[in-house]
Fold this sequence. Notes:
The protein has two domains: 2-96, 3-Layer(aba) Sandwich (Glutaredoxin), CATH 3.40.30.10; 108-236, Glutathione S-transferase Yfyf (Class Pi), Chain A, domain 2 (Up-down Bundle). It is 47% helix and 9% strand. It has ten helices and six strands. The protein has a four-stranded mixed sheet, with helices on one face. Strands 3-4 form a two-stranded antiparallel ribbon. A hairpin with a 5-residue loop joins strand 3 (56-57) and strand 4.
Amino acid sequence: MIILYDVPSNIPQPWAPNIWRIRLILNYKRLPYRTCWVEFPDVEQTLQSAGAAPTSVRSDGRPVYSLPAIVDPIRSPRQPVVLSNANAIAEYLETTYPARQLFPEGSRAVQSLFVHYVQEIFVKPLLPIMVPLSHQRLPERSKTHFRHSSPNVAVPEQAWRAVQDQFDFLAAVLDKNAGMDGDGVVAQGFEVSYADFAVCSVLIWIEKVSPHDGWARIKQWNGGRWSRLWDRCHSYMDVF
């Protein structure tokens, strides 16, 4: 059984978007897995013990370990595959378990570019809103791990307008699929793909952490498009 490492919180459901991206894939591909909960102060030691490579290196040369991470005992429990980068995990799962394809033939490059946009540009205006809210959802021990957390202040409307600009842009791009080329909801035309899970994981983050302000707004934007995408992905949102 695959192990997926995730961070615990003080709400019933997990919220971390990069980890949800992998959980959606595991559920979509119907792969047996279990979640192992790791508080932020324990991530480095846990992943080192599992044999994971660092996800990046600081300017001072120190390795950085981060989630998501998986341990797959496909070869043997003594020599599992251990990965700790969301995109690397996604490609590994697609290659190793090709049933229920998420990368239609010839789409890996375009989907990789799409997901890079989601990670680096689309979510950027969300960070000042969502990071402080997410910090509040952490257990006390994990809260203290992040010494420079932002205070809990009211979010100005101009911050939400910057978020809506990104959603409007992405909606206009996806609209190009409406009609003969697709249903206009998912990125690859008619079937869900890795690109959709990248966007939906952001929606899950917002819904779990800011259901009455953030998600209440966003699900009404662009004619309810984001609510429809949520519905398309909803059957893959189980937590094991």
